[in-house]
Structure formats: C-alpha cells, structure tokens
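User: quick one, fold this
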Amino acid sequence: MIRDMSTLSAKTETVIAPPRGFSPINVRELWAYRELFGFLVWRDVSVRYKQSVLGILWALLTPVITMVIFTIIFGKVAKIPTGGVPYPIFSYAGLLPWLFFAQSLQKATASMVAERNLLTKVYFPRLIVPMAATLAPLVDFLIASTVLVAMMVYYHIVPTVHTLYLVPLCVLWAWLTAVGVGTLLSAWNVYFRDVGQMIPFVIQVWMYASPVVYPASLFPERWQWVYALNPMVGVIEGFRWALLGQGSPPGPLVAVSVAISLLFFVIGIFVFRRMERTFADVV
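Assistant:
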C-alpha cells in the first residue's frame, strides 16, 4: 500500500518538557492560555461572594472596621501625628493598598497547593496560578475605594490633578510586589507547608513595619533609606501623597523601594521557574 508522503510530512508533534536551567517568562504561551487565566480570576471572585449573606459588603467591612479600630487606638489614644490630615482618612488611605497587597500575597502563596488537582492532570503555564490569585483582591480594592472617595468628599480633600496618575501606578507597584513575593512563597509552599502557616504572622509583622498607621516621617532621616528597603513604604506613601497631599513626594527613597520590588519580582519568577518542573510530583 502506497502512502502519501506529503501528508505524513505535514504532521507535527508537540513535545512538552520541563525547562532546563533558567528560562524567561514565555509571554506568548501565557497569552495563549489567557482564557484559563481569566477563568481562574473570575472563579476566585465569584466563590468569594457566592452564598454570602452580606455579599460585596465584606469588601467594605474589613477596611472600615479596621480603620475605626486604628482611629481609636492610634489616632485618639496614641495621638500619632498625621500632618494635619484627619486620622480616619489617613489610616484608610494606607489600608487600601496594604490590604490589596496582603490579600494578594496570601492567596498567591496558597494557590499552588489549592490547585493540586489541576496541576497533576493537565499542562498549562504554572505561573498562571499565582498570578491569577493576585488579581482577585483587586475587586475588593475597587469596591473599598468608594468609601475613600466618600471620606474625601466629607473632609473636603481635593487631590491635585497632576498627582492622580500615581494612584494606578502605586496599585500596579503593589501588584508586582505581591506577584514577586507570592510566586516565591507559592513555590516554597509546595515543598514546605510551613510557609503557608507562617504567612498570617509575616503579613501582620509586615503591616506594622509599613507606614499604615503612622507616617514614614516618624523614622529618623538617617534611617530613611533602610526603611525604604520595605517596598510597601513607597507604595503607601506614594498612594497617600497622590490623593491626600500628605507624606513624601516621589524621590530617591521611592527609587530604592521600586528597585527592591523589581528585585523581588525577578527572584520570585526565577525560583518559581526553577522549581516548577517537579510541582506535579510533589504537590
């Protein structure tokens, strides 16, 4: 029997093999799986509010109740200076980017273990999982931002137009930091489940090491550059300055925080890509 060789030669094979050494992010492959990425984000958002009595009010209750507690303890009792800004809006403007970062980090860390059934059955770029987990809290951030707008109207605070561009940049900055640290911890959490257990404690300590309840100006000037090694310092201070005109404008210290965030991002992606080849075997 004679076979058509042209037909045989037209057939192609796709070989899926783990990366060797360090391989950069395959943007084309991530784009090809964009529908899966969107599905994971939408699923996380819908699951959060499905069969919930209060629904989206949960996105408002957490920052509002926390703001009230901080106002009583740090605003009324400790009387932390805020540069003339009412303490409720001062703390709330710090809580918004912080909660977005903290929730994104927590979800990204647990994401690989939570998706163990998916990881062991089909192939897709593993990086999609922690990255999708970091975007779901963005919905909560947008909902909670409505309270900030209402508070700015109540306190007659009008942001300067030429600084508003920093608001989405600070949110993007917080997201990149969460992706970097989250991918790193999610990879470690596959092998060492203690990582997931320690995350709430790490987030709690990190919050008090960030200018959420106090201004960064309380630190002595000679130690400001050390304080700026915490990338969330630049995020929160930049967010406050853009909206309230309070805090330090972008400068050399912000550049230090940005550099640390980019370093976290590169290290997180590097470690994740090196470890992902054995995720399905270990998870």
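User: anything notable?
Assistant: The chain is about 70% helix and 0% strand.
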